[in-house]
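Priority: low. Protein: YdbS-like PH domain-containing protein. Input follows.
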Amino acid sequence: MTGAAIQAEAKVAAEGEPQRTDVLTFVVKAITVLPQLLIPLGFVSFSMFDDGLPSEVLYIALLLVATLALILLSAFLSWSRFTYRIGESDIRVESGILSRAARSVPYERIQDVSLEQKLIPRLLGLVEVKFETGAGGKDELSLAYLAEEEGEKLRELVREMRDEASGEAVDAAAEGTELERAEAAATLFAMGPRRLFTFGLFEFSLAVFAVLGGLAQYAETLIGFELWDPDLWRGWLAGSGEWIGALGPMAQVVGAVAGVATLVVIGSATGLVRTFLRDWDFRLERTPKGFRRRRGLLTKTDVVMPAHRVQALRIGTGLIRKRFGWNGLKFVSLAQDSGAASHDVAPFAQEEELAPIIRAAGFEPVADGLDWQRRSTAFRNISMVINAAVLGLIGVVVLSLNAFGAGGNIDFAQLLAFIPFAVGGFLVLREYYLWRFARNAIDTRQVYRRTGWLAPSAAIANRVKLQSVEIKQGPIARWKGYADLHLGLAGGTFAIEGVPLDRARSLRRAILDSIAETDFSEINR
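Result:
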């Protein structure tokens, strides 16, 4: 569909009646609510049978039918009372059954339009259209749900209207057809099953135990005792302890190793499942409209980020993956990515794979020969002293109370009071090494920041795209002559902490000069 066709369709939609989402929307919402009622109804049923009241089955069935009817009725009314209209200058949405709400979002306020498909809508051929306004959270606008083809057309339509409203429109004839634009897309990064498997091994997680803990609260009704009763576990461990003690030292070691191995297997399996669900068929493409990222197995997302809206880059790694050369790249954009300010564009890549993506976004990778500057030594020393003083004071208080309660004698339990001293010493060493590896630099186009010791990260910001420059100083910072430099981004934050005051002023002056010399009306063209 050409730009002229999109504009014609926009005028027709603007003059037509308000439109509703797909009729299957209320079915999807009813299905998603239903699982929340199954567990309570199941426990009610079990309790009634356990009391010897099988004649109550009819009442349970009636309760279930009435509940389903209410859910369907509520979902249908909510769907029928939700309308949207694509106007000439804005999108207008009205919703509410008893209390009505009307919202209008101008096109120039829309930062991005993305498509998302969860499992059930995907099976029904539906898609949720999300309009990112840069406000984040509940203020974002979405239409759930439309047919896939209709959602794609609506996205193209709104983007065209937004570009015209913000002065970013291009010649429709130069855009070509939708098929030509698809053929012009170039894949910058992709992850197949083998890469996802490797990625999942590094995404070790024990979150499954949190889920099991939540389910255990429901299970208490069935098993008849309190899972979190300390006396219960104390007695069980005492009996098990006698049995384990009879096995001998070698068996105890084998049991401990098996327990650790079980945790490793469970954590690795959890990480693999999460990675495959989130990043299945991950693909980043460079299109004439910007960067297009698609991913997801059960929930599929389709996001397009215009290149000129990329405000900064974040490059990070992990403690273990660093040793194997794996890094992650994120774009800091005006729009949100699942509630986060940064978009994952290459979550698991080698360094040589990141360079083409960075250049395609209009940035340059970190070059050799930059004049890297460390944080102020005064900032480092103050941080070390504060950590040592706070933990040392806690240790002294705990040790004094324990010694006073024991009549001046110190036993093993009281030796645990020395833990704060050990933690304080660790934090002092940590601050020292963080100071060694935290640096900042600037060149004619970009500002750089490096942080981290065991898991280093880097951030790159374009000097022209920065919104503001602020120098912050607390009482100690003013006394010791250092400051925090906060660089404002429309899609996030960029802070350089603890730099000497002269350095902070020099960076501020250079960045403000770049902003003052730039004609922002030409940036987006």
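The longest strand covers residues 326-337. The longest helix spans residues 249-279.
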